[in-house]
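Sanity check

After download, print the first record. It should look like this:
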Amino acid sequence: MVDLFKWCLSHTYFAGRITGVLNFEIDLKTGRAKVTRKATICAACSNLVVYIMLACYVINVQRVVTVWAMTNRLQEYILVALSVFRIICVSLSLVSRWCNRREFVQLIDSFSRQFGPEILPYCRRRIYCKIFSTTAVNLIQFIIILIARWKLKDLSTTLSILGLFSITVVISMIIMQYFIAMANIRARYILLNRELKAIVSETQNLNPKQVGVFVTSCCNLADRLEKVAKAQSDLQAFIDRLTTVFEVEVVCLIVTYFANLVVNLYLLLSINEFNIISNISLDFLTCIFTALNVFYFVDFWVNASNIFSLLDAHEEMVVQLSQRTSFQVLDPRLETVIDSFNLNLARNPFKLRFLGLFKIDRFALFALINSILGHTIVLVQIEFENK
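Expected structure tokens:
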């Protein structure tokens, strides 16, 4: 029987290779990555094809905009601005991929050493949700591309439209890779928290009156706690490396998400002001754009909840260690290990900060959502004022 999870991951890997997002090879059996001439040529050719289609879009931008039959200049300017944002962000992301290729290979090797099959039950469902939401968004955008294709008459304009769709696929592949890495890290944290919870529970139940058993138990607990502390330290170091390598791409992708959500909401609210093609009903267009916005928000929330769950898992670890005051008198070595673990967590707080511009937390998410709604409302007001 085919393992659906492995099948999904394999297809995600090959999709990354085809789109040029992955410019190296990964051995799917061992998880080891390596730079090869074949992978380099394939990625370069894929990137070249994408840039050729984007060049066609730049050349034919005015014709592409007229395909959507916009009724005013504001709508045209917004579509052009969105396209420019996406082109710039994808270009920077792909350049970052080539500049940091060795670092990506090292990250994949570290990943394969630290994460085993025991974590799959704790990240499988989240990855399924991510694959579903990403596929739904890409599928709906492809349907919109097909609708626009009915009006196209030449190959150059068709390549322009496909170029914009290729940007969506490239962005999806980059986000998918980052998501899978963070989902596995979160699963690893869950296992560490379970082990830590068991250690804390056993520590609280120690009986100092049973001297021999007490000393032996304390030594055993100290050894286990040292392993948890070492694993957490390695995990946080891996997260820091991952953040450094992905920071340009993450910033670009957040900007792209922001721009896409604002424009898609604006187009949905203004759907009765234009028609993509004369023989397509307004109800159908409204349904398509509504579905696009719904799945965009679902995909956005799946990404955000994955990161917030990781932050919560780290906070749970800190809270469990804060129960230090409820412990009885302990063996000096166990006390030293606990204090050292607490001190290490205090010295190295877990924060996801990118390019020194912002950090990802719930306050940042609410601010982003408010900004999306605010900019959408402003665009709609401007349109009504200029009717």
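If your output differs, re-run the checksum step. Summary of this record's structure: The mean pLDDT is 80.
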